[in-house]
Write a structure and sequence with these properties.
It is found in: Membrane. It holds the Pfam family TAXi_N. Keywords: Aspartyl protease, Glycoprotein, Hydrolase, Membrane, Protease, Signal, Transmembrane, Transmembrane helix. It comes from Hibiscus trionum. The chain is mainly beta. The protein folds into two domains: 312 residues, Cathepsin D, subunit A, domain 1 (Beta Barrel), CATH 2.40.70; 149 residues, Cathepsin D, subunit A, domain 1 (Beta Barrel). The chain is built from five helices and 34 strands. Strand 12 and strand 13 form a beta hairpin. The longest helix is centred in the C-terminal third of the chain and has 15 residues. The radius of gyration is 22 Å and the shape is globular. It starts with 9 loop residues before the first strand and ends with a strand. 48% of the residues are buried.
Length: 493
């Protein structure tokens, strides 16, 4: 990407391994995050540009739960992303792939790839997948039912004499990737009856990328591929669900302070008083039906049709977006309401074209709460730090800028990490809904999944006996208490 950032050092904050029990097959997650140590000063225009490219990359077109070792990077001043570490093939090899709720397919750069980056600024070693070196790999043919499903929903194609199931994904920023599909083993950890058991596997279909173009060729934030978390049949979560390995639900809780970190599980984080709203049906992304916006308890005078959903408009939840964006027609009303609420308490300034404010006290003492109101009487309440970014400080004065931006001429609203942090978010694909609740993401969470009758288990990760025994059982639902311990002070130069 084109953005140039000040030199920074990386602190890696690792959560402890945590048991995730889903009907006999839970697993283990680790989250890491990079944060800058020296400066929070960054042009919002660079963040907007990064997100613009990201939005162009939203694609245009055994019973239990699987849990991966997950690494996460989130900090708006670093322009982070979340990525996970997968093991594929026989013998298993590790790959780092971006977690992307805006696409469906898992693809990895392959050994014959043209344009795949060879280095990255993420403190990881990039690798290429070689299907010839895996004894369990096979090429997916055009006659495979999964290929036919991909042709209908995920950009697959069949042409040429080799009869391989191929794909070409073109993104709105001009970048793209192409290759062919392979089938190979995915390795993951499980917990069976309260005891950690490794070496579980499932056969999945994923992309072997032979060419990358545009921004996918750059090295600053490069990873080995992209892990699509979408709803279509070729997504890994859909494949594992169809095999009875995992539920069609995943959840995250992203910590927004003290170095970040958080939780990502395949399953439903269960907390009292969760707010749920239905997913808009027949849409390619995680679209929600937003009805209105309130600032300081007052509903803004924005026509509800501004938030209506079609292929080029509506509200999308996207963990791959750093900032957040309002539909063009709603943006000015939002900014005006914020400024009217704080006009006597702050000094507004323009910083490189961005609306910013000089503040000598806590933003929570000055700025109002914002509420995004959705179908089903579900409201997502935003505190000031959920829509503002601190750009820098001068003496005792802090410069805070609006983290909500607009895409000129577009009627799309995108809820990125700025909004999603410090909240539980549940993507319940089985019930076609998304839920949330404000939460301390360094705390324990309960994770559950509905399983087949007669298969129940309960594990309390904090109280499990040393022999791995499980104290209780609950009918039809498996639950676990997942505790995240933030380990600070691991410094990597």
């Amino acid at each position: 990407m084109a953005a140039v950032f000040p030199a920074w050092v990386v602190i890696v904050v690792v959560t402890s391994e945590a048991a995730v029990v889903m009907g006999g097959f839970p697993a283990t997650l680790k989250l890491e995050r990079t944060i800058p140590l020296t400066s929070h000063e960054l042009e919002l225009s660079r963040l907007r540009e990064r997100d613009r490219l990201r939005h162009g990359r939203l694609l245009q077109s055994s019973v239990g739960v699987v849990d991966f070792p997950v690494l996460g990077i989130y900090d708006p001043f670093v322009v982070g992303l979340y990525y996970t570490k997968l093991q594929l093939g026989s013998p298993p090899r590790e790959f780092h792939v971006q977690i992307d709720t805006g696409s469906d397919v898992l693809w990895i750069g392959c050994n014959s790839c043209h344009g795949c980056p060879k280095s990255t600024g993420l403190q990881i070693t990039l690798k290429l997948y070689d299907p010839g070196s895996s004894s369990t790999a096979s090429t997916v043919s055009c006659s495979d039912q999964r290929c036919r499903s991909g042709i209908r929903s995920s950009g697959s194609s069949c042409s040429g004499s080799n009869k391989r199931c191929s794909y070409t994904f073109q993104y709105g920023d001009g970048s793209g990737t192409s290759g062919y599909y392979v089938s190979d083993l995915l390795h993951f950890n499980t917990i069976v009856q309260g005891s950690v058991a490794g070496n579980a596997t499932a056969k999945i279909m994923f992309g072997c990328s032979t060419a990358q173009t545009g921004n996918l060729t750059t090295s600053d934030r490069a990873v080995d591929g992209i892990f699509g978390f979408g709803q279509q049949s070729l997504s890994v979560i859909s494949q594992l669900s169809s095999q009875g390995v995992a539920p069609r639900t995943f959840s995250h809780c992203l910590k927004g302070s003290d170095g970040g970190g958080g939780i990502l599980v395949f399953g439903e984080i269960v907390e009292p008083n969760m707010s749920y709203t239905p997913l808009v049906p027949s849409m390619p992304h995680y679209n929600l039906d937003m009805r209105s916006i309130s600032v300081g308890g007052q509903i803004l005078p924005i026509d509800s049709s501004v938030f209506s959903t079609s292929i080029n408009r509506g509200t999308i939840v996207d963990t791959g977006t750093t900032l957040s964006y309002l539909a063009d027609e709603a943006y000015n009303a939002f900014v005006d309401a914020i400024e009217n609420a704080v006009s006597e308490s702050v000094h507004p300034v323009l910083s490189r074209g961005n609306q910013c404010y000089l503040i000598t006290t806590s933003v929570n003492n000055v700025f109002p709460q914002v509420s995004l109101n959705f179908a089903g009487d579900a409201s997502l309440v935003l505190n000031p730090e959920d829509y503002l970014l601190q750009q820098n400080s001068i003496g005792g004065t802090a410069v805070w800028c609006l983290g909500f931006q607009k895409i000129e001429g577009q009627s799309i609203t995108i809820l990125g990490d700025l909004v999603l942090k410090d909240k539980i978010f549940v993507y319940d694909l089985a019930k076609q809904r998304i839920g949330w609740k404000s939460y301390d993401c360094s705390s324990s969470v309960n994770v559950s999944a509905t399983i087949e009758k007669g298969k129940t288990e309960f594990v309390n990760a904090r109280q499990m006996d040393s022999d791995g025994s499980s104290p209780d059982q609950l009918p039809n639902t498996v639950a676990l208490l997942l505790h995240v311990f933030v380990l600070a002070g691991l410094l990597f130069s």
